[in-house]
Design a protein that fits this description.
Blueprint: H1 3-30, H2 39-65, H3 92-108, H4 113-150
Helix pairs in contact: 1-2, 1-3, 2-3, 3-4
Length: 164
């Protein structure tokens, strides 16, 4: 896939998928209203939001620059994406989206977002286990097997993994 098409597709998918899951639905649930809450946790929520957004943008950019594709299942990367934050954890995008939801729960003091985050986490874990992993194994074979054996799916490594 051409880099320009991959970038445009990634931007569109960014708006639709994470934008819907971590933006639209939390807004529908909370209208982003601030409830009475302890200020230090509000600050922690804001910091988590900024950090998670950075992780998410970085992970999406990695699909374009390294994978020459998009994170969208309809336009997958041509190459296995294993650089950047993917050297620490296999699912940084999903972790970032969950962090965006949890950051909003803290920032706004909206506890309704906690069960929503749990449902999203279960959906992500199910999709990874029963869809993404089999597809990656089929498409990238032993390269993905080596990567999966070395890099945890959900709890980041302390030191970056190196393919070499």
């Amino acid at each position: 896939m051409q880099t320009k098409k991959a970038a445009l597709g990634s931007v569109a998918f960014f708006v639709i998928a994470p934008g819907g899951v971590a933006g639209l639905v939390p807004w529908l649930l909370t209208r982003w209203r601030f409830e009475p809450f302890w200020p230090p946790l509000r600050v922690a929520g804001a910091v988590l939001l900024v950090a998670a957004l950075g992780v998410l943008v970085s992970a999406f950019a990695r699909f374009v620059s390294e994978g020459f594709g998009t994170p969208a299942p309809v336009a997958p990367p041509d190459r296995l994406v294993v650089g950047g934050l993917y050297r620490y954890v296999r699912n940084p995008m999903y972790l970032a989206v969950l962090s965006l939801i949890l950051g909003q729960a803290l920032l706004f003091g909206q506890w309704v977002l906690l069960p929503y985050a749990a449902v999203v986490a279960l959906a992500f874990a199910s999709m990874v286990r029963w869809h993404e992993e089999p597809v990656l194994l089929r498409d990238f074979g032993t390269q993905y097997e080596r990567y999966r054996a070395a890099v945890p799916g959900w709890w980041p490594r302390l030191r970056p993994w190196s393919a070499g």
